[in-house]
Amino acid sequence: MRRDELVGAGVQLLGGESGPAVTVRAVCREAGLTERYFYESFADRDEFVRAVYDDVCTRAMSALMSATTPREAVERFVALMVDDPVRGRVLLLAPAVEPVLVQSGAEWMPNFIDLLQGKLTQIGDPVRQKMIATSLIGGLTALFTAYLDGRLAATREQFIDYCVDMLLSRVETH
């Protein structure tokens, strides 16, 4: 239970609007716990930051896996990552500024690609499936990052529609 409180505090600090501000003291202050509890759950700050990132990735993967249509997948991902932009910033922006997450981001990316590839059942060639899934994940990552950064002036509905159109048009052309 305390571990979950610490991870929740870490999500808030790692995905903060002004960028990651994760120190052991800050996490404990945010969670209302002492450092003793932190070190009962985590060996050090780096292990903690990876645990926070893994938590957000696991939630994102779970939301995507339970979707049955491309629209549902996009809507669930938007609800998780845009409606709660702190989580979106952890997933998409923190690996660029938090050195300990460079490897974690690289390890999670193939999972998202494989998940999408598994949904591309209309495409018979597995190599083509992988290329399409990889390009779609790259494109969607760039779109979500720009949307979270405020560089896209689209409404929530325009954004969802575009992402769904992108997924469907890529699959329908093959």
Automatic annotation (TrEMBL):
The keyword Metal-binding does not apply. Residues 1-60 form the HTH tetR-type domain. InterPro entries: Homeodomain-like_sf, HTH_TetR. The keyword DNA-binding applies. One of its GO terms (molecular function) is DNA binding. Residues 23-42 bind DNA. Keywords: DNA-binding. SUPFAM superfamilies: Homeodomain-like. This is HTH tetR-type domain-containing protein.
